[in-house]
Design a protein that fits this description.
The structure is a single chain. With 138 residues, the chain is mostly beta strands. It has one domain (17-136). Helices cover 8% and strands 38% of the residues. The protein contains one helix and eight strands, in the order βαβββββββ. It has one helix at 20-30; strands spanning 17-18, 42-46, 71-72, 74-77, 83-91, 96-104, 112-123, 128-136. The strands form two sheets. A five-stranded antiparallel β-sheet has the order 1-7-6-2-3. A hairpin with a 7-residue loop joins strand 6 and strand 7. The longest helix has 11 residues, at 20-30.
Amino acid sequence: MKDYQGNLKDKWAVDNLIVDDGWDHSADAVSTDGAQPAPAEWLGIGTGTTGAAAGDSALETEISTGGGERAGGTYAHSAGTKIWTLVNTWNFTSSFAVTEAGVLNASTAGALLSRQVFSAKNVASGDSLQVTWTFTGS
């Protein structure tokens, strides 16, 4: 997280939770049965504080104003690795206490693939927040 002058304010890492809908989405993506789901390439942030749970189907309180709107992440995957990432940087025009983030498969609504809740990251107008979501297979 950076302030309006570009100074680093905070950096942290948390493990993500792939929710039940996310597992279903992943199975459908490799299945030959039925329609293929839309790619999970959207990142959302919010102010919800209820812990992430396997049954989650959306962010609790997704931000939809002030520069915190859901955004298509920049996707990266190197051939031969079991790692892929999505990255987005939000530039705020309002203040929020960001406490949750998630990966979804649509610009609005859609299926939630993964969600996490963390301690408040307070952002103000002029601040930016970058989320890098990393999935590592084993």
